[in-house]
Amino acid sequence: MRDYKIAPSILSADFARLGEEVVNVLAAGTDMVHFDVMDNHYVPNLTIGPLVCEALRKHGVKAEIDVHLMVKPVDRLVPDFAKAGASWITFHPEASEHVDRTLQVIRDSGCKSGLVFNPATPLDYLKYVIDKVDLVLLMSVNPGFGGQSFIASAIPKLREARKIIDESGRQIRLEIDGGVKVDNIREIAAAGADTFVAGSAIFSAGKATDPNRYDTVVKALRAELAKVKV
């Protein structure tokens, strides 16, 4: 079995209680924090920046923080997020003038680097920079908003990405983001993903008054992953 990681997207959390929300969802058995950064330029939405990342660290969050930059340009923000406590920084190649340089800037800042591919973006970039990539993130929705439905074409694309990664012989994680739920996570994992971003599936689960609602949905996700035959 692969080393599966569940990364709750805080885009779907209650921002009035963000620190508490993140602590609770990690205590429920998730592995890392997915941190969506949108600039109302590269994508039609505006979210959060390095100060919020830093605030989570000051709140006591020790888990890895997976910063997904949906911004253009990219390079200026990388050192700020690295200083704020990011563990991983991923970006969309279309948003960088020099993809190789941006990957190196991320690594030079002390973070692990990754490329993000939108539903209609081919994986061709990987041919030239796979030696500088620690993570490949495939979008299974169009970036910009949470709560969208899973785009089925992500399944064959996952298989293609898994083949590229395996043939490279490198330790590269394969992450999926968008519409991941209990009823499809097994199929997604079988196609090759090992890291799963889940926002509304986790933070909107059950009743807000139920203190165990995160535990219940995370256990259900884990149970489905345990059924995967690789």
From TrEMBL:
What InterPro entries does the record point to? Aldolase_TIM, Ribul_P_3_epim, Ribul_P_3_epim-like, RibuloseP-bd_barrel
One cellular component term from this protein's GO annotations in UniProt = cytoplasm
Query: GO molecular function: any one?
Result: metal ion binding
Per the record, the GO terms for biological process are: pentose catabolic process; pentose-phosphate shunt
Q: Does the keyword Magnesium apply?
A: no
The answer, when asked if Manganese is one of the entry's keywords, is: yes
Q: Where is the active site?
A: D36 (proton acceptor), D177 (proton donor)
Listed binding positions for substrate are: S9, H68, G144, F145, G146, G147, D177, G178, G179, G199, S200
- Pfam families in alphabetical order: Ribul_P_3_epim (PF00834)
Q: Which EC number(s) does the record attach to this protein?
A: 5.1.3.1
Q: Which UniProt keywords apply?
A: Carbohydrate metabolism, Cobalt, Isomerase, Manganese, Metal-binding, Zinc
Q: What is this protein called?
A: Ribulose-phosphate 3-epimerase
Origin species, per record, is: Candidatus Muproteobacteria bacterium RBG_16_65_34
State the taxonomy lineage. Answer: Bacteria, Pseudomonadati, Pseudomonadota, Candidatus Muproteobacteria
Name of the coding gene: rpe
